[in-house]
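JOB MANIFEST
job_type = single_chain_structure
chain_count = 1
residues = 75
[input]
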Amino acid sequence: MTAAAWLPPEGDVHLRIRVGGMVFDYVSTATAVRGLIRDWQRKPWCTIELIPDTIEGCRLLPRLPCERLWVADPR
């Protein structure tokens, strides 16, 4: 299944990023995650996982750093 098919149209999602053997869990808007994945497809720099948790399970997770940068319109 592709990320586009799994991501809800709106709301928050649980995102896991793996970089250099370290794992970072964040919560972010679905729109920001789409932007991050779009950028990642151009130049992969990490491993990205979308975790199918309920939002209640994400309440203690930090927000994706610079989340608003990924929401920007790519045009």
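[summary]
The longest helix spans residues 30-42.
Residues 19-71 form one domain.
exit_status = 0
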